[in-house]
Design a protein that fits this description.
This protein is mainly alpha-helical. The protein folds into two domains: 15-65, Arc Repressor Mutant, subunit A, CATH 1.10.10; 68-209, Tetracycline Repressor, domain 2, CATH 1.10.357.10. The chain contains nine helices and no strands. The longest helix has 26 residues, at 126-151. The relative contact order is 0.11. It comes from Streptomyces fungicidicus. GO terms for molecular function: DNA-binding transcription factor activity; transcription cis-regulatory region binding.
């Protein structure tokens, strides 16, 4: 009788661990992009910063610029969740004010400084700009699905897609406006966070008013 063979090698990673690794790579990539520039950064350097090989980095991302995608997509996920929870009939500005007051972060998760530095780079780095815009293109579709759920309309209804586009554009404009005003010293980060919240409120208020 032949003994059955047990499974050899490393056990497969959980989805949670895979997400953690993607975020570690993203943070390392941003750090290198900010300190030495995108052109001077290699996959080997990104991998070395998190204890991985370049081959493993490319297993998670197709290019060095795309390594930053998790830092952008976290914000999209947070906003989509907010839209699904926003009760029908409740004014958007009121809902956003409450959400921001309760500490939610539209602009990309808890690490605002890292995301701000990354958004600033999108102004001068075409590859990063492409990732930023592609993320917002995908975000618009996610926002439309969330708005459709709360309104009971199809996701491709013109009213839904238009509202999603306006909401998406307001968020992007607010984050870019805030980021492009320059970096902040560590002692000014709290004030910068409050300014970001206020910028988001203003942009979403304009979107709520419509084209005019």
């Amino acid at each position: 009788m032949t003994a059955s063979r047990g499974r050899t090698g490393r056990p497969p990673l959980t989805e949670t661990r895979r997400a953690e690794i993607r975020r570690e790579i993203a943070r390392a990539a941003v750090e290198l992009f900010v300190t030495q520039g995108v052109a001077s950064t290699t996959g080997e350097q990104i991998g070395r910063a998190v204890g991985l090989s370049a081959r493993t980095v490319w297993r998670y991302f197709p290019s060095k610029e795309s390594c930053v995608t998790p830092l952008f997509s976290e914000g999209v996920d947070a906003v989509s969740a907010f839209l699904r929870q926003w009760p029908p009939g409740r004014p958007l500005r009121e809902a956003v004010d409450r959400w921001l007051t309760e500490g939610a972060d539209i602009a990309g998760g808890p690490d605002r400084g890292t995301v701000g530095a990354l958004v600033r780079l999108t102004r001068t780095e075409p590859g990063l700009r492409a990732v930023w815009l592609r993320t917002h293109d995908e975000a618009e579709q996610a926002f439309a699905r969330a708005l459709a759920e709360r309104s009971g309309l199809p996701a491709d209804d013109l009213r839904v897609t238009t509202r999603a586009a306006m909401f998406n554009a307001a968020l992007r404009a607010a984050v870019e406006h805030h980021a492009w005003h320059g970096d902040r010293a560590p002692e000014e980060r709290d004030a910068a966070g409050a300014e970001l919240v206020e910028t988001l409120r203003q942009a979403l208020a304009v979107a709520a008013q419509g084209v005019g």
